[in-house]
Amino acid sequence: MNELKAERTKRAVKTAAYWVWSLTWGGVMTWLGTLIALALLVTGHRPKRLGPNVYFETGTGWGGMEYGAFFFVAKDDSPSTRLHEAGHGIQNLILGPFMPFVVCIPSAVRYWMRRSSSNGGKKAFSGILTGLMALLGAAFIVLSALGGATGGYIASLAVGIILIVYAGALALWLFAFEIPKYAGGTYVLYDSIWFEGSATRLGEKYYSAHT
To answer: Which of 109, 135, 113 is nearest to 124 (CA)?
Structure first.
């Protein structure tokens, strides 16, 4: 009995630590996930648990997405999808505020890029997306120039520069490294890129006993 109580206490402490770290260092994604979770609760969706993570099932046929300690999956998803999304939650603990830029955005872009059946479609999608991101950055820079050297407009300038640089980095990755992998109709494994493969391995390592 004492051993069981000790195990429950240890699990509770780990869960609390996971959530504290997710809401602080990993707060960018987890707080966004909190907003989505609240919206789903209001619309009658019931939360479920996988390890310390809270997740919701909604819709069908679309896979899943991770927001820190929360993740959201299709009702017809597989256990492997849930493990994969929970693995992204561990990445969020490590990367914290860098998670959206290093993993989440590239993962989403790659997911939709892969849905184009031809390399031409992949290039068109990638070019339009990164071009729009760069245009948004340019708009912020123009706004800052019109407003003068005040604190708010300096922030607009910084946001604009970051968006343009990030759009350029995404475009370089997509056109120079990612899209060429699909030349000639080559099938590329979803987990062949580091952030997807890592999420799967982490999820299977830490949460497979919970499925």
So the answer is: 113
Residue 61 CA to chain centroid, in angstroms?
Answer: 18
Residue ranges per domain, the chain?
2-96, 99-196
Displacement of CA 110 from its chain's centroid (Å)? 11
CA pair distance 139, 53, nearest whole angstrom? 38
Q: Which residue has the tokens 């860098």?
A: 98
In sign, the C-alpha dihedral spanning 205, 198, 109, 119 is: negative
pLDDT digits (tens, 9 = 90+) for 138-159: 999 998 877 655 556 788 899 9
Q: What is the side-by-side order of every strand in the sheet holding 48-50? A: 48-50, 53-57, 70-73, 64-67
CB crowding 165-188: b at 16 or more within 10 Å, else e: ebbeebbebbeeebbeebeeeeee
pTM above 0.85, yes or no: yes
